[in-house]
Amino acid sequence: MKAIEVNGTRAYQFESFDAQAVDHAIFTRLGGVSTGIWSSLNLAGTVGDDKDAVARNHDIMFEAFGKKLSTRFDVWQVHGTQVHFAEEPRPPEQKHKPGDAIFTNKTGISLTMRFADCIPLLFHDPVQKVIGIVHAGWLGTALQISKVAVEAIGNRYGSKPEDLVVGIGPAICGDCYEVGEDVVRRFEKYWKKDYQAFFKQKNGSLYLDISAANAFILRQIGVRQIEQSHMCTAENLDEWYSYRKEKGLTGRFGVVFALKDGIKNESK
Question: Which of 77, 111, 155, 253 lies 20 to 30 angstroms, CA to CA, from 86?
Fold first, then answer.
């Protein structure tokens, strides 16, 4: 990944993505107006931060991204497997739909999600001209949301796994993500096999590597082009929010993804 800095913000971009086809940025927590535990570019309005500060942070992020806030399409992230397809931006007065995967093949739409330890998975199909963001925590990973998403865009847009370019963004790493036996049981229920490799014992506790698990899922279904950020949110609080490390008292960083305006596509 490479870092970019615009107007006091700092973001990262995957080098595997075609910059002539897409605009994307994973914004750090730097460059916003929030203070205290939310310092400073907090994009979440439900964590106790000042509403006006959060609204201004959204403006700051979109200004840095070079798009209008009115192009935004986002959802209410619920740790499930619901996939949404954006045909137009979400009107400000429209209630968020629950979901954890959003895709579009339309220009003029800026997909956006918020994170703090869960994985941002960014998808680009340069053949069918489709982009998407997937939110994967331990439950989404257990439910194999990345597989669900690939199957959904195959059905909707005709996307093929071998054409996809996927970026696995900053998330809590396998050395920091302590989980309980209940998580192992969920993986056993939904995966049936192959899940044990992503758990390890350390100092009498269990730890889960959700980044490696999602990379495994993607490869199993035929995705060949995967770029890993190898950035741990819990180990780098100067740049990222971490729900686990900060014991829930923290904000959320933003991810924005858009097709370049010159990229045209017809509805399927």
Answer: 253
